[in-house]
Amino acid sequence: MMDEPVVEVKGLVTRLGGKTIHRGIDLSVKRGEIYAIVGGSGSGKTVLLREMIMLLEPHQGSIRVLGHLLSQVTPREGKWLRSRWGVLFQFGGLISSLTVAQNVALPLLEFTSIPRELIDELVSIKLSLANFPLDWACVMPNELSGGMKKRAALARALALDPEILFLDEPTSGLDPVAAAHFDRTIKELRDLLGLTVVLVTHDLDTIESIVDRMVILMEGEVLVEGDPREVARFPHPWVQDYFHRRKGERDWRGR
Amino acid sequence: MMQDSPSLHLSRSQSTLRAVLKGRWCMENIPSLHRALEGIEGEEGLEIVVKGGDLEALDTGGAYLLMKHTRQWMERGARVTLRDFREDHRRLLDLLTQTPEVRVCTRPVSPNPFYQLGRWAHALARDILAFMAFLGEATLTASSLLLKPSRVPWQEILYEMEEAGSKAIPIVTLVAILAGVVIAYQGALQLKRFGASIFIVDLLAISMAREMAPLLTAIMVAGRSGSAYTAQIGTMKVNEEIDALRTLGISPMETLVIPKVGALIVVLPLLILLADLVGIGGGMVISRQALGITFHDFIFRLQEALPLGSFLIGIAKGPIFALPLGLISCFRGFQVKGSAEEVGRYTTMSVVNTIFAVIAIDAILSVILGNMGL
Known about the structure:
The complex is a heterodimer of chains A (255) and B (374). Chain A is α/β, with parallel strands linked by helices and 255 residues long. Chain A has a single domain (31-44, 77-254), classed as 3-Layer(aba) Sandwich (Rossmann fold), CATH 3.40.50. Chain A is built from nine helices and ten strands. The longest helix of chain A has 18 residues, at 176-193. The radius of gyration of chain A is 19 Å and the shape is globular. Chain B is built from twelve helices and five strands.
């Protein structure tokens, strides 16, 4: 049970609007690791993530999450699975007619029968786990900055203590300091709660500081999968460009 | 899926209570665990030993519940020790002891009615002031365009005329015919009893030309075009398109508001004329069916029944309604800020406001014109 991959993708083919996005993707995510999906714009990273969380269906191939084949889950199993993962959308996906606290309470009200007073306290715990300042808990989402929205959305993703956390570009649109802080929060949560984290990212800082394993998608296929340090040595112009940018920056910083 | 039900085994010897935790202390089991823990009364001098070595799983929900009750027992004077917890569980418990026990309210609060009244009045006053400013800006832009006719955005005006005018023809026709049918039919039933059947023409012509056609057309246009204006400008506001226009030195007032309002002023009287024709036409058909008045008699009577004044007043209501209708719906669009949700809210407000404005102006006109003897 523990050695079985948490997410396993095999032979995945996706076509959207007449274009083939994925032509046979295989990858697997192990329990407890932080796994990054990387690739140029339009390489189908977000589509892949959306297929893992049952928002899109692939044309061919299989996706297993927590041992369940997604193409064959019953509605009941689907509901259970959805309570076992938390999703952080790129722009938060907070419900705009509810306050931040109500957003975080939403999954708790939907999936559990916890008494209301306890929910109120749990919500404040989740918000503080995600480093969201509690004085802002009763504010409407459209009054929040991008960084605050992400933290609120992270708190909502954590609401049910999921086993897997799916993050779509968690640090995009954040300033470098806030991004580093967000990365640290995710790593702490992984260590503390034993989460498995699957994230789509462009951010080299994230990859360097918290990612255990990563995959690079290129033209609908897996270019390379592995430890970030191994991947960085992979002899492919795009990969070298991608990681090299960083080295230049570091030299400049050391001067 | 491990579904071992969580449990709490209690054994008491003199002043020591041993609580052994087993199973999965997780979110989904909170309600039952909460009840079980509430059964423990922490009393003065009691020593509570909580053993967590056999726990299968502990998540923030379970840990939070345990710490919450621990805190309560200690407040009542009991001594609590936690033993044998796994390293990761202990860290989780430590973390939750550090976070203060705060309750954020997730229930919708209904504010006090005086507060709501004050808020409403404040919002109304602010809206009125903002609308005055908008009106001023629109007037300035319009008069500067009058001085420089070459700058008038003819192309946009024509486009808006097509959108609000030509494309509204089918629905305005349909609604006007139905209104004519309804008036003629109801009138026929009453007039027949008095043997004054021919007066159906007077009834139909005056009510249609003077009141029904202008009012119905304006309401249709408010629902069709007014709401579209608010939604369009509101969406542009959310997408920062309005800001982009401003930075490019293009006045949104000139490119968005003037063409829309201008087009409505031209198009609404034309639509009213159409509604007059088809509405009276619809009534004419019903008159023949229900009262046996021939088309010839109807049209002959119509020439006497409908004074030119009433007809012209009906047409003149077009521009009079078009101006507030266009201005209010554009104004509501500019008020949108922040999220897409606001667009929907302001569009609703815009439709309610414009229809109210149209009916209120119509009522005022009726009183004024009535007193003038027109």
